[in-house]
């Protein structure tokens, strides 16, 4: 039954239908029936009450106890009633609403609503049932008084289960920001993992999601430890209040998480190269600025490439093991890979040749003083090809977008004898293969894994 249909249900002639009329009844003097010698006692709860959402309810048929319950459920902002999640059976004849404090309200056709709170007496509604009725009737116009059944079990002679059937639970859930069980709720383990991913975006020391979720806390700062304690509180609330979890998802979208991840990666890439420059210029320092020798710099860059690849794998593979096509992740990953490869190929020289800080015994081995040789010099089919292996795993149109940058890198590699022939051939094959495949299809799949 739609809101329009509900609004057209008949009302008794004596019923007040305007808010002004309701106000007069609330403030006017009590009426004494003709022939009565004494006035009726004034009820502490008026026969018309206005709910928190602005609707006026006629509760004149209620006894004092039922009026009190109705007032708590419909009017009080501090009634501590909050929806956790709701659901329905397969045929849509039974509905359940899980509230705070492990309270469950059940609605079934042609039956009095039931609540697990234990306050339902003589088949009359409790405050939780009134709260549910108030939520369901919130779609009605506010310019007319809403009549409740004598036992508080229905709105305007319409059973709440009928209202849900005609408008659907999903419509009400969307309107009232409720969470529907099964359709919206991940398993607890998945929920916790997703909250961790979201919280990692705001971790004060820039930890990546996998690092943030690690149980190893030996290297954490005091600030990070405190943040983890806050994270535990948020996880607890997200499990207990699914609607809160849904709000977190609305604010911290997957797109936002991807952007933050690669911002952190790019910041680390810059930091690694700056640390190498710091070491070349000043040597090991005990200051706040980090310094890295060539070998340590190469290891750190290799670690960053691995972290990006792990993130791609976690993000692009579905639970069924299929490969998802997330263009945004692939674009940002390609940018990060090309930034690293471009910088490495520009550093094809002995980093310690012009040492000014008195390095005791500068290494003469190019694999220890030349970042290019350190990362690319040993490239082979067996050892793998730094960065190129990752780019070969991407769709052709992603790589083709960087054809100019790859061409510049190819020129650099071709003009030095330190480039392994296998690496140069792999780069040329990558460029040519992606061009051909991009020309033959709008999208593409990697040679190693199929894009789904």
UniProtKB/TrEMBL annotation:
Region of interest (Disordered), ranges: 18-45
Keyword list, A-Z: Metal-binding, Zinc, Zinc-finger
InterPro entries: Znf_SWIM
GO function terms (MF aspect): zinc ion binding
Presence of the UniProt keyword Metal-binding in the record: yes
Protein's UniProt keywords contain Metal-binding: yes
SWIM-type domain: residues covered: 103-137
Residue ranges, compositional bias (Low complexity): 36-45
Protein name per Swiss-Prot or TrEMBL: SWIM-type domain-containing protein
């Amino acid at each position: 039954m739609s809101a329009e249909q509900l609004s057209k249900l008949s009302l008794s002639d004596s019923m007040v239908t305007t808010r002004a009329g309701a106000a007069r009844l609330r403030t006017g003097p009590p009426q004494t029936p003709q022939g009565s010698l004494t006035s009726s006692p004034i009820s502490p709860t008026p026969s018309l009450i206005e709910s928190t959402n602005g609707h006026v309810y006629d509760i004149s048929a209620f006894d004092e106890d039922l009026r009190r319950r109705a007032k708590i459920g419909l009017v009080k902002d501090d009634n501590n009633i909050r929806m956790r999640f709701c659901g329905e059976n397969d045929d849509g004849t039974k509905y359940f609403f899980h509230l705070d404090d492990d309270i469950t309200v059940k609605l079934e056709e042609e039956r009095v609503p039931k609540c697990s709170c234990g306050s339902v007496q003589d088949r009359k509604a409790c405050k939780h049932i009134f709260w549910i009725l108030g939520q369901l009737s919130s779609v009605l116009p506010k310019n007319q008084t809403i009549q409740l059944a004598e036992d508080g079990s229905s709105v305007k002679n319409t059973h709440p289960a009928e209202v849900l059937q005609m408008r659907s639970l999903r419509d009400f859930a969307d309107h009232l920001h409720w969470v529907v069980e099964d359709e919206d709720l991940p398993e607890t383990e998945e929920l916790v993992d997703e909250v961790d991913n979201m919280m990692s975006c705001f971790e004060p020391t820039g930890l990546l999601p996998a690092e943030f979720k690690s149980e190893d806390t030996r290297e954490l700062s005091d600030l990070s430890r405190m943040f983890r304690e806050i994270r535990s509180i948020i996880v607890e609330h997200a499990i207990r209040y699914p609607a809160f979890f849904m709000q977190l998802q609305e604010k911290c979208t997957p797109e936002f998480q991807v952007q933050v991840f690669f911002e952190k990666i790019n910041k680390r890439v810059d930091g690694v190269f700056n640390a190498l420059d710091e070491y070349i210029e000043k040597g090991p320092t005990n200051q706040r600025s980090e310094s890295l020798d060539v070998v340590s710099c190469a290891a750190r860059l290799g670690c960053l490439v691995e972290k990006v690849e792990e993130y791609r794998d976690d993000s692009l593979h579905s639970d069924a093991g299929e490969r998802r096509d997330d263009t945004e992740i692939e674009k940002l990953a390609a940018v990060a890979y090309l930034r690293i490869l471009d910088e490495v190929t520009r550093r094809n020289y002995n980093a310690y040749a012009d040492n000014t800080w008195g390095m005791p015994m500068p290494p003469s081995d190019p694999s220890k003083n030349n970042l290019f040789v350190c990362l690319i010099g040993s490239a082979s089919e067996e050892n793998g090809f730094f960065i190129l292996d990752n780019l070969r795993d991407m769709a052709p149109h992603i790589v083709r977008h960087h054809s100019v940058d790859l061409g510049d890198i190819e020129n650099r590699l071709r003009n030095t004898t330190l480039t392994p022939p296998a690496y140069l051939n792999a780069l040329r094959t990558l460029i040519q293969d992606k061009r051909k495949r991009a020309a033959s299809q709008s999208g593409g799949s990697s040679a190693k894994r199929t894009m789904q």
